Known about the structure:
The chain is an alpha/beta fold. The chain has 13 helices and twelve strands. The strands form three sheets. Strands 1-2-3-4-5-6-8 form a seven-stranded parallel sheet.
Amino acid sequence: MRHANLSIFVPHVGCPHLCSFCNQRSISGSYGLPSAQTVEALGQQSAAQLRASGVPAEIAFFGGSFTAIGRDYMLELLRAAQPFVQQGIVSGIRISTRPDYIDPEVLALLAQYHVTAIELGAQSMSDAVLAANGRGHTAQDVQRAARLVQDGGFELGLQMMTGLFRADAQSDLETAHQLVQLHPDTVRIYPTVVMTDTLLADYYRFGVYRPQPLCQAVEDCARLIELFEQAGIQVIRVGLHAQESLSEGMLAGPYHPAFRELCEGAIWAKLLQKAFYGKPQGRYQVSVAPRALSKITGHGAQPIENLRRMGYTIKIKQDCRLKGRSFRIGEM
């Protein structure tokens, strides 16, 4: 484990909009509002483990629009986190917020309270898609906020969604290209799922909206992962985090508890198919980095199944000298 978030969800507080897809309580599993005591309890509970592990960690306020909540409440949460930053238990504070609730004044305040990373919910860079989903901001707002965050010395994270109402694979790809031009440090990619008690649920029931099939979402998100990584941007999340409340509140959509593994498998399938093109059928050994093993052999083992259908018998071997998606092929 290279990084840890002590995540605290602040659902549906302060946001003046109700986006077509949004049911933060079901997505996060948080039905009550956190308090200063919530922050203190989490920090104290995690302190000994974090000190022993040496894993860098941040206190992360997710699930809402942090800079849009009441100022007194925002400061209450930030103040409760300060002792854990000052004692070196966490390296800083991470927040997620809307791009239209970023300005120089609030950024100066966040810096004063040791906020080091700000994630902006861009979701799409198509104004038509943003309007159709009730986002209440434009692509220009995302660009403006991203510049302000970077100029303020914060780590910039951007979040996008695929398969939104009125979006398609091409508009999602164009969104990703525009996000790359903003040079964020990190990106999160979320395929759209239909949650109960949302406008999107009504669209789905009346046949106005059709969610992406899982296979299509995997293919599209795999392409986006490659695009961001080729630009040197770290993709820190793909797909919604598995929660009991999520499965209970979801009506439809491309959800899988190991969605990123499926995407990584799709990337490996393409890499290996290209590497084996023109090779005679037979038995081969493929050496990969240890962390890549589950991506090739797990959750349907798409890369291996594809090669088997092409007439290859493959044995996968771990090689600690290899990193990332590098691999070696040898005959058996």
